[in-house]
């Protein structure tokens, strides 16, 4: 079986997998033996250890008391979640009470599912980041619509995971009260005259989201059939927009989805300084389209999101936006933040725009694609394995065959190519790109006119730039490569820092990449800009 046949088979299997739908949250088919102990006995153990934890003079006994308290609370929560009726009724049957709504806690009635974080097995996200502390880490889940079904703008497809810590508060002598702390906002809990760090599992919500979300299942369809899920092109907010936090925008590359950054998100989530100062936006787009087309879509999405953000409060944090981009996403990003002048336009046309023979809507499309205004908000950009000068792999025969399999959306083939480039005939500089319409693969060729034009444009001086570049281990920079992009293409100047990490092209998965991004984000906080 050839490489091409294997790729087509894999793409077909992916389509079939998408039709099966995502998995479901864990249910109560298995309940640990300790959870079947009488509720009264479990409450007595939890209460006695709560009293120990409330007393600073008993500090030496805290570790054992915390473990015993957590086991009892975990068993009680299992009994409550696996019983029937409303949450409040379930709590009462255990001899406990449910809290009144407050800003510190999650209302379980507003969740579609909630279960212990320990039930989520690490499959895609490593390593597992946990915090020892008081309470039982939970994952909450709120459903949205599946991929391909409309939902509110900026909402994640399939659903949102929530990092929750459950505790039982024995401060009230009448009956203990359940607390479901928003762990992403609160790190500790007052128990009597003492404060204790709340337990947490930072990996479980991230892992569960990617088990449930279908975006990563579409990576091959988004290459070969980019028109199939164009409605999913846009920005997703991992949390509701907060004007007090700096957006960190993540732009993935070819044959990929926002899940390319799941390891980085897993590394950033446990950091209190990150949660306090940053919010994550994920840009998703079908990667079969030429990168210049995807750049136009990114600019449209970013401008729309920034207009929305400005309705929510001051824009000082918005204007400190950081963008991190992998592979082809780096070209999409670089083109979006760079003033093109006439460089892109001149790469395609010899006549002034008001003299070309097209209708006015097409003329406007050309302006938006080639004579656009760059994004204003990004203040810092981190490139990861970006083919600034293309990739030689795009010129190999298998890549050219694959490129011909891509079915471009109408916006590209009709509104731009057919009505503009085909009509221009002699205006084009050669016929090769006319006969082979641009796709994501052939526009990554080192000889592609858009790639050559972008390389002529200097990096904007008002933006801070950084590069993280993969080296498969030979240590022969500047002759190195990540297996897809050689150093001569991924190296760009001037940047404030360039780090070569021991990685293939999957640079975002490399632990050194996450540590370098943390360094850059901390630097950004101290820059005063």
What's a concise summary of this model?
The chain has 18 helices and 15 strands. The chain is α/β, with parallel strands linked by helices and 529 residues long.
Key traits:
alpha/beta, four-stranded antiparallel β-sheet, disordered N terminus
What low-confidence regions span 5 or more consecutive residues with pLDDT below 50?
1-22, 220-226, 394-435
Query: The biggest beta sheet, please?
Result: 7 strands, mixed
Termini gap: 55 Å
> How much strand?
15-25%
Query: What is the 3D form?
Result: elongated
Strand adjacency order, main sheet: 9-11-10-12-13-14-15
Number of helices in the DSSP assignment: 18
Number of strands: 15
| Overall average pLDDT | 84
CA-atom Rg in angstroms: 26 Å
Structural class: alpha/beta
- Helical amount: 25-40%
Overview of this structure, please?
The chain is of the alpha/beta class and 529 residues long. Helices cover 36% and strands 16% of the residues. It contains 18 helices and 15 strands. It has helices at residues 3-19, 39-53, 62-81, 87-93, 203-212, 221-224, 262-268, 272-277, 291-310, 328-337, 343-348, 360-370, 397-405, 410-424, 432-435, 449-456, 487-490, 511-526; strands spanning 113-116, 130-131, 136-143, 159-169, 177-182, 188-191, 194-197, 200-201, 234-237, 246-251, 278-284, 321-326, 378-384, 464-471, 497-502. The strands form four sheets. It has a seven-stranded mixed beta sheet, sandwiched between helices. Strands 1-3-4-5 form a four-stranded antiparallel beta sheet. A hairpin with a 7-residue loop joins strand 4 and strand 5. The longest helix is centred in the N-terminal third of the chain and has 20 residues, at 62-81. It is elongated. It starts with a helix and ends with a helix. Mean pLDDT is 84; it is low at 1-22, 220-226 and 394-435.
């Amino acid at each position: 079986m050839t490489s091409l046949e294997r790729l087509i088979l894999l793409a077909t299997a992916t389509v079939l997998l998408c039709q099966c739908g995502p998995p479901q949250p864990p249910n109560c088919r298995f309940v640990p033996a300790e959870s079947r102990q009488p509720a009264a006995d479990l409450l007595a153990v939890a209460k006695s250890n709560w009293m120990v934890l409330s007393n600073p003079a008993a500090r030496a006994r805290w570790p054992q008391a915390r473990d015993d308290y957590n086991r009892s609370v975990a068993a009680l929560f299992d009994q409550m979640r696996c019983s029937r009726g409303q949450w409040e009724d379930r709590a009462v049957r255990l001899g406990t009470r449910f809290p009144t709504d407050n800003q510190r806690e999650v209302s379980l009635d507003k969740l579609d599912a909630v279960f212990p974080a320990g039930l989520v097995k690490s499959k895609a996200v490593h390593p597992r980041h946990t915090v020892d502390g008081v309470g039982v880490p939970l994952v909450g889940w709120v459903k949205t619509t599946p991929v391909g079904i409309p939902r509110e703008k900026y909402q994640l497809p399939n659903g949102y995971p929530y990092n929750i810590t459950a505790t039982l508060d024995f401060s009230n002598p009448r009956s203990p009260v359940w607390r479901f702390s928003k762990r992403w906002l609160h790190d500790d809990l007052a128990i009597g005259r003492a404060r204790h760090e709340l337990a947490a599992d930072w990996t479980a919500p991230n892992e569960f989201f990617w088990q449930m979300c279908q975006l990563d299942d579409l990576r091959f369809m988004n290459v070969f059939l980019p028109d199939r899920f164009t409605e999913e092109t846009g920005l997703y907010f991992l949390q509701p927009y907060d004007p007090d936090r700096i957006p960190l925008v993540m732009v993935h590359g070819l044959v990929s989805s926002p899940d390319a950054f799941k390891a980085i998100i897993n590394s950033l989530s446990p950091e209190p300084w990150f949660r306090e100062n940053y919010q994550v936006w994920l840009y998703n787009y079908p990667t079969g389209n030429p990168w210049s087309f995807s750049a136009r879509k990114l600019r449209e999405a970013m401008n729309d999101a920034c207009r929305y953000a400005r309705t929510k409060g001051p824009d000082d944090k918005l204007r400190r936006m950081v963008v991190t981009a992998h592979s082809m996403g780096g070209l999409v990003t670089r083109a979006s933040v760079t003033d093109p002048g006439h460089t892109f336009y001149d790469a395609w046309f010899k006549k002034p725009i008001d003299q070309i023979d097209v209708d006015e809507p097409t003329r406007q499309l050309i302006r938006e694609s080639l004579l656009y205004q760059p994004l204003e908000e990004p203040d810092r950009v981190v490139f990861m394995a970006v083919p600034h000068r293309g990739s030689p792999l795009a010129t190999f025969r298998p890549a050219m065959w694959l490129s011909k399999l891509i079915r471009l959306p109408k916006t590209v083939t009709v509104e731009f190519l057919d009505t503009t480039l085909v009509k221009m005939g002699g205006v084009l500089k050669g016929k090769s790109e006319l006969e082979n319409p641009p796709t994501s693969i052939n526009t990554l060729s080192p000889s592609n006119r858009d790639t050559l034009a972008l390389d002529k444009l200097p990096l904007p001086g008002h933006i801070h730039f950084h590069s993280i570049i993969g080296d498969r281990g030979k240590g022969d920079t500047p002759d190195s490569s990540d297996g897809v992009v050689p150093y001569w293409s991924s190296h760009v100047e001037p940047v404030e820092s360039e780090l070569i990490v021991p990685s293939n092209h999957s640079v975002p998965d490399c632990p050194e990449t996450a540590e370098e991004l943390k360094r850059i984000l901390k630097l950004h906080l101290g820059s005063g800009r």
